[in-house]
């Protein structure tokens, strides 16, 4: 594989499994050194070992991205180790609130906001001083942030806020030649989609098989569940654009209007 990111440092949150893991490994294959965080130490260690087996440096830390002290310590460690950050992928997220608003759990509703909005804000705020011209910020969003639904109000609100955060940051940082964009994977074969325990042993292939002939409920027949590696390839494309590439834009793998 072409070393498109040779000499770069990439930070990926929520990298223990699923999309975050795929992005971290794809970026390492492309030559980047990597910093990753997640809440599962076991999953995080496995990804770190895979990255290091590719000959790349990897900083990893168990972090709750909604915790200001934990995020600040993680970012300080990254800057101390690498001095600079070229790519930031805000991938970590929570989808705790799936029912009606009236039946929602206030703690789960607010926790969703904290992880999906406060988390990207905190890590971006602490790393921005280490990012220079040509740096890329990618925020993983959802179609639910672009249209109202009849349930999961906390998730809809959080992703709508992330949309505006991305666009505002793109406007603010263009003069520093830092590009900020949104990635919307569409339905992807992760345990978030299948609503299964990530420690249950279910594999990406198991989830893909489950939805081979029938898309998830509420989606049109022409929608397709993607492998996390497909999302990683889109992220790699954005990460490798030369300075002056797109900013404030939405890049989606969905197969329907959002």
Summarize the structure.
The protein is α/β, with parallel strands linked by helices.
SSE blueprint and pairings:
Blueprint: E1 9-13, H1 18-29, E2 33-38, H2 41-53, E3 58-62, H3 68-82, E4 87-90, H4 106-127, E5 136-140, H5 153-173, E6 179-184, H6 191-194, H7 204-210, H8 228-239, E7 250-252
Parallel strand pairs: 1-2, 1-4, 2-3, 4-5, 5-6, 6-7
Structural class, judged by helices and strands? alpha/beta
The number of distinct helices, counting runs of at least 4 residues, comes to 8
Q: What is the CATH architecture descriptor of the largest domain?
A: 3-Layer(aba) Sandwich
Biggest beta sheet summary: 7 strands, parallel
How many β-strand stretches? 7
Taking pLDDT < 50 over at least 5 consecutive residues as the criterion, the unreliable ranges are: none
The CATH superfamily of the largest domain is known as NAD(P)-binding Rossmann-like Domain
Q: In the residues, how many domains can be counted? A: 2
Strand order of the largest sheet: 3-2-1-4-5-6-7
Oligomeric form: single chain
> Which H/E pattern describes the elements?
EHEHEHEHEHEHHHE
Please tag this protein with its features:
alpha/beta, Rossmann fold, 8 helices
Structure description:
- By secondary structure, this protein is an alpha/beta fold.
- The chain is built from eight helices and seven strands, in the order E-H-E-H-E-H-E-H-E-H-E-H-H-H-E.
- The chain folds into two domains: 200 residues, 3-Layer(aba) Sandwich (Rossmann fold), CATH 3.40.50.720; 36 residues, no CATH class.
- It is 41% helix and 13% strand.
- The chain has a seven-stranded parallel beta sheet, sandwiched between helices.
- Strand 4, helix 4 and strand 5 form a beta-alpha-beta unit.
- The protein is globular and about 45 Å long.
- The model has no long low-confidence stretch (mean pLDDT 95).
């Amino acid at each position: 594989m072409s070393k498109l990111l040779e000499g770069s440092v990439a930070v990926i949150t929520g990298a223990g499994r699923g999309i975050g893991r795929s992005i971290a490994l794809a970026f390492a294959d492309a030559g980047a050194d990597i910093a990753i965080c997640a809440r599962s130490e076991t999953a995080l260690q496995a990804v770190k070992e895979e990255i290091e087996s590719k000959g790349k440096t990897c900083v990893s830390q168990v972090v709750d991205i909604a915790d200001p002290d934990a995020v600040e310590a993680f970012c300080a460690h990254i800057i101390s180790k690498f001095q600079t950050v070229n790519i930031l992928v805000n991938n970590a997220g929570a989808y705790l609130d799936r029912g009606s608003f009236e039946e929602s759990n206030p703690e789960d509703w607010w926790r969703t906001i904290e992880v999906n909005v406060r988390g990207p804000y905190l890590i971006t705020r602490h790393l921005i001083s280490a990012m220079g011209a040509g740096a890329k910020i990618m925020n993983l969003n959802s179609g639910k942030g672009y249209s109202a639904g009849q349930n999961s109000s906390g998730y809809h609100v959080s992703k709508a806020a992330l949309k505006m955060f991305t666009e505002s940051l793109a406007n603010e940082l263009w003069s520093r030649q830092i590009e900020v964009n949104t990635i919307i994977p569409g339905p992807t074969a992760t345990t978030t989609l299948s609503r299964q325990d990530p420690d249950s042993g279910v594999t990406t292939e198991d989830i893909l098989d489950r939805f081979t002939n029938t898309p998830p409920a509420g989606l049109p027949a022409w929608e397709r569940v993607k492998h996390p590696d497909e999302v990683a390839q889109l992220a790699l494309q954005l990460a490798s654009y030369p300075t002056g590439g797109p900013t404030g834009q939405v890049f989606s793998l969905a197969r329907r209007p959002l």
